[in-house]
Amino acid sequence: MQHIQEGSTLDQSVTPVTTAPFAPPRPGADAPRRVPEAVPERVHARGKFLWTGNRKLYLKGVTYGPFAPGDDPQGFDDPLRVDADLAAIAAAGLNAVRVYDAPPAWMLDRAADHGLRVIGGLAWEQHVAFLGEAARARRIARDARDAVARVAGHPALLAWSIGNEIPSDVVRWQGRRATERFLRRLADAVRAEDPGALVTYASYPSTEYLELPFLDFLSFNVFLEDPARLAAYVARLHNLAGERPLVLSELGLDARRNGEQAQASSLREQLRAAFDGGCAGAVVFSWTDEWHRGGTDVEDWSFGLTRRDGRARPSLGAASAALRQIPRTPERGWPRVSVVVCSRNGAATIGKCLTGVAALDYPDFEAIVVDDGSTDATARIVDEFPGVRLIRSAHRGLSAARNRGLDAATGQLVAYLDDDARPDPQWLRYLAASFARSAHAGIGGPNIAPPVRGLVAQAIAKAPGGPVHILLTDTLAEHIPGCNMAFRRDALVAIGGFDERFRVAGDDVDVCWRLQERGETLGFSPAAVVEHRARTTLLGYWRQQRGYGRAEALLERKWPERYNGGGHLTWAGRVYGNAVAGHRHRRWRVYYGQQGAAPFQPAVHRPPGLLRVLPLMPEWYLALVVLALGGALASDWIAWPLALAPLAAALVATLARASADAARAVFGEPGAGARGTRRRWLLAALLHVVQPLARLTGRLGHGLAPWRRGAHARLALPLPRRRSRWHERWSAPAEHRAALERRLGRAGRLVRSGGPYDRWDLEVRAGALGGARALLAVEEHGQGRQLVRARIWPRVSPAVLGFAALLGALALAAASDGSWPVAAVLALAAGTLAAWTLRDAGVAVGALLGALETPDPSPSEEGA
């Protein structure tokens, strides 16, 4: 351990702290607990950040130790030196210390006196295959509980890190899921002894695939000195963290190999990249060069902010200066922003929304409320907020209200909030900084449900169907939802604002598509958070989901080319949101590298199979109605089992999927394992059943039925085909594929390109049950002439055809028993399912044949 020696040099901005001597406890002895002189409030996680009470806490930390053990097994043998070090850490502008073992109570007392919080560690033999012996695993969990119990409830204790970088080959040997279950066991042990402490685990890129939704915040040790690469990886980690805070639990650079000035410069940029990227905190590795590991002192590394002799390095001043500038001001200053809140009878929530707007930490913004014909006290409540501009109009719908706000806005940026959303205090700073670093026309941020009381409200907050972001990459969005979206004003004006046919929902999807159609891009800022209140009643949730179904029907009429034959939109990107929900239906495989040695090991997710998603589709309920009709027509007790067996199987599949999703949504959140109740789980499962049914009623009521035929659908027999096409002008093979994809897009078909592991180049989906794939080959015939060959084959789900065959077999059995009504219904269901599947595949094959036969555009047409 090390302290700043008298006479050492600190950065000019750092003033050494002189602390009064105190009577330290004898190392290793049990000392009586005392009340610290400056007791900080305990920290809690809310959304993407850490908080003390209602004040956001940016965690600015440094690692401390581990040191060589002496009389004290944790290496804290000299309390006077520890106290001096903690004083110097606080004087440098840091507010947290991370240790790798359980801190003694007296150390937490002194940390609290200096206004520091401590992330305690649980040290155990994580470098070996610890799950190979059941007794070892039990002992690790028992030791963890004992360590936590000794200091449980201490106000200076910020969190417990239940592990640090379990080696990737150990995880690979034991199995990913087994390791995750053991870490869950340790987290439960910590919470059992100290329910008020946060729980995390310090992972690293070689095990980034570990899914640990039970953690309060995500911690990652990342040593990337290139600021651009670090910023890109931080964006990726935010997508792994989902709606939880992200903390870089180790970062730094070795001064021995890179030089002290390079260390200072690199550390400054690493800290900026971390906090600019929306991290809730960062921990520098380390305070001193003195470091002990594996029974020996490590002497060939020099990561410390201070040297072994106690003198400060330039990196201490650089880190201190960087941490004082959070969040950082863009080079061109802060642009003016217009915050527009549209409300229709929002008296119950708009007060909290405007309270959040009034508390925004931003130097230049205006607040505009557009009252869309409210009949309640909305206008009166708005008048209670000085400086808020109120625009009242007749009820014309959400899009019209957004356009009124756009017309009145004077800012370069226009940020939209729903009247039941409350922004984070730094919401506008993160949005404006993201605009300054990019050319995006629009940027959105996470929409996180605030803590709510009541069984119904808590279940709805975890129910499906809420507004989500669709991301093409970690930072590039395909869709940003209306409750938290901001645009460059000029870009919105250029497309004519919002389409006023969308009166309740769908306007955000439409405006995103129109901007992208003009060549604009959309971005995602993970720290630009708003707390968006979910519906609090079952009736309100039903109406919301039914309204979303209506919006889907309106969008399909305007954008038919974006919907398949079954009436479903297939997004090119992936859903951002709760980490548990985001991975709920995914299949995965891990890129381990040769012998598991890859430095970065992501989990590669694949789309779920059809059987996994069928119970989530609105049309699934139409199938249940048909099967129930077969049971109702059964004439005797012999026919009932034949008629009800398919219905029973379908209902079991529906309830099983809803129950599994509800369990992950309810109990996967941090700390919910001990608090979850059976009633809460049952209600959440019910909502997972109700949501697609509500969407179905809205879709059908506005003409979006699965049986309607898509415009200009060419039907071909779903058989394998071969085609060729002659070209007099040479093009790269990739351009031939892109041209075919463009022709399919102009024909209104949804196209997916094959990946590096696929033996096909394009896939066309014409419906929910069938599609077709194409493989291309380009032959060179000299003088720029080429022959493009295409092999086409249909794609249908064997499981769906098998289910149709089962229904057919049951129909035959019912007919042989003389139950003709049951046989007719089952035969109709089997025939409809098979015909629908073949029809979707036939339309997809026809689309590929049509695109191959479409002549190439002329050069002038191609340029246009």
Question: Could you explain the architecture of this structure?
Answer:
It is built from 27 helices and 33 strands. Among the domains are: 46-323, Alpha-Beta Barrel (TIM Barrel), CATH 3.20.20.80; 337-536, Spore Coat Polysaccharide Biosynthesis Protein SpsA, Chain A (Alpha-Beta Complex); 721-801 and 834-863, TATA-Binding Protein (2-Layer Sandwich), CATH 3.30.310. A ten-stranded mixed sheet has the order 16-15-14-17-23-19-24-22-21-26, with helices on both faces. The chain has an eight-stranded parallel beta barrel with strand order 4-5-6-7-8-9-10-11, surrounded by six helices. Strands 29-33-32-31-30 form a five-stranded antiparallel sheet. The relative contact order is 0.07. It is globular, with a radius of gyration of 30 Å. Residues 1-37, 578-585, 671-675 and 858-864 have low confidence and may be disordered. 40% of the residues lie in helices and 18% in strands. The longest helix has 34 residues, at 820-853. By secondary structure, it is an alpha/beta fold.
Topology of helices and strands:
Elements: E1 44-46, E2 49-52, E3 55-57, E4 59-63, H1 79-91, E5 96-98, H2 105-113, E6 117-121, H3 134-151, E7 157-164, H4 168-174, H5 176-193, E8 198-203, E9 218-221, H6 227-241, E10 246-251, H7 255-258, H8 260-276, E11 281-284, E12 292-293, E13 296-297, H9 314-323, E14 337-343, H10 350-358, E15 365-372, H11 378-383, E16 388-393, H12 398-408, E17 413-418, E18 421-423, H13 427-436, E19 442-444, E20 447-448, H14 455-461, E21 469-471, E22 476-479, E23 484-488, H15 489-494, H16 507-517, E24 522-524, E25 530-532, H17 538-558, E26 574-576, H18 579-582, E27 587-590, E28 603-606, H19 610-613, H20 620-632, H21 639-667, H22 672-675, H23 678-701, E29 721-727, H24 733-746, E30 750-753, E31 762-765, E32 770-780, E33 786-796, H25 798-816, H26 820-853, H27 859-863
Helix pairs in contact: 1-2, 3-5, 6-8, 8-9, 14-23, 17-23, 20-21, 20-26, 21-23, 21-25, 24-26, 25-26
